[in-house]
């Protein structure tokens, strides 16, 4: 099983450039989300989705856009990168539970530097 | 804004020792609180949760009580086992479905026999 796949693993951008971080899962999970992790801090929620066509803002959504046209994919777009967006980005997914263990699966992360 | 603060790790214990991992939170409104566990090589798995003040979540011998007055949700277990070695994450959700999760940094627990 591929699980949650993030691309790219590393990216360097100049201030003002745009780019898309890709996230795909092959487990038919309804829930997908994007987090950023900064040094010495926990995971902060950027955006999340509970199904195709449904997205919602997390704790730190400014400067990021998302869409969910399919169950499998949940791309994160930076429209105009800023140095404050330098971080490690994680995508996560899980089933919307009706019971059970509610296991959350994470991708391996994308390390983004904005100069 | 919302945030979660966990005690720094690693925490190293002998088998059958008592475990406490401290967690405090800052939130607007009344969040739901969670503990997730990550075993080596696996994803995060929900361990327990509490949705309102004074609720106690429990699972597999672990317990945590939602303390609104101290904004805390400390994880405890009376007698740890080697198999409890993992990374523990405290989290809060600002929706009842638990889909808007904010995590702490995680605390690594290592239990030796």
Please explain how this structure is put together.
The complex is a heterodimer of chains A (115) and B (113). Chain A is mainly β and 115 residues long. Helices cover 0% and strands 49% of the residues of chain A. Chain A contains no helices and eleven strands. Chain A has strands at 4-7, 10-13, 19-25, 31-37, 43-51, 54-57, 64-66, 76-78, 87-94, 105-106, 110-114. In chain A, the strands form two sheets. In chain A, strands 2, 4, 5, 6, 9, 10 and 11 form a seven-stranded mixed beta sheet that branches. In chain A, strands 1-3-8-7 form a four-stranded antiparallel beta sheet, with no helix packed on it. Chain B has strands at 3-6, 11-14, 19-21, 23-26, 32-38, 44-50, 56-59, 62-65, 75-77, 86-93, 101-103, 107-112. Chain B contains no helices and twelve strands. Chain B starts with a strand and ends with a strand. In chain B, the strands form three sheets. In chain B, strands 2, 5, 6, 10, 11 and 12 form a six-stranded mixed beta sheet that branches. Chain B has a four-stranded antiparallel beta sheet with strand order 3-9-8-7, with no helix packed on it. A two-stranded antiparallel ribbon of chain B has the order 1-4. At the A-B interface, strand 4, strand 5 and strand 10 of A face strand 1, strand 6 and strand 11 of B.
Radius of gyration of chain B: 13 Å
List unreliable stretches of 5+ residues of chain B: none
Number of helices of chain B: 0
Which overall shape of chain B is indicated by the principal axes computed on the Cα atoms? Answer: globular
Global morphology of chain A = globular
Percentage of residues assigned to helices of chain A: under 10%
Q: Calculate the terminal CA-CA distance of chain B, rounded to whole Å.
A: 41 Å
Tell me the major beta sheet of chain A: 7 strands, mixed
Stretches of chain A where pLDDT is under 50 for at least 5 consecutive residues are none
Backbone structural class of chain A: mainly beta
The secondary-structure element order of chain A is: EEEEEEEEEEE
The biggest sheet of chain B amounts to: 6 strands, mixed
Tell how many strands the DSSP assignment of chain A holds: 11
Rounded mean pLDDT score of chain B: 91
């Amino acid at each position: 099983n591929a699980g949650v796949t993030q691309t790219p693993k590393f990216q360097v951008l100049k201030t003002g450039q745009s780019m898309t971080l890709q996230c795909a899962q092959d487990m038919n999970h309804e829930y997908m989300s994007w987090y950023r992790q900064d040094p010495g801090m926990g995971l902060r929620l950027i955006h999340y989705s509970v199904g195709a066509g449904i997205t919602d803002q997390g704790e730190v959504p400014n400067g990021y856009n998302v869409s969910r046209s399919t169950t499998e994919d949940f791309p994160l777009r930076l429209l105009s990168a800023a140095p404050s967006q330098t971080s490690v980005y994680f995508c996560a997914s899980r089933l919307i539970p009706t019971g059970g263990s509610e296991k959350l699966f994470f991708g391996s992360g994308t390390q983004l530097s904005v100069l | 804004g919302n945030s979660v603060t966990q005690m720094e790790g690693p925490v190293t214990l002998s088998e059958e020792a008592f475990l406490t991992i401290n967690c405090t939170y800052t939130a607007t409104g009344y969040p739901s609180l969670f503990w997730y566990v990550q075993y080596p090589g696996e994803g995060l798995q929900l361990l327990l949760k509490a949705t309102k003040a004074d609720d106690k979540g429990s699972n597999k011998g672990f317990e945590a009580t939602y303390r609104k007055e101290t904004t805390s949700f400390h994880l405890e277990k009376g007698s740890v086992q080697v198999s409890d070695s993992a990374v523990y994450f405290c989290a809060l959700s600002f929706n009842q479905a638990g889909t808007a999760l904010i995590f702490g940094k995680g605390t690594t627990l290592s239990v030796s026999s």
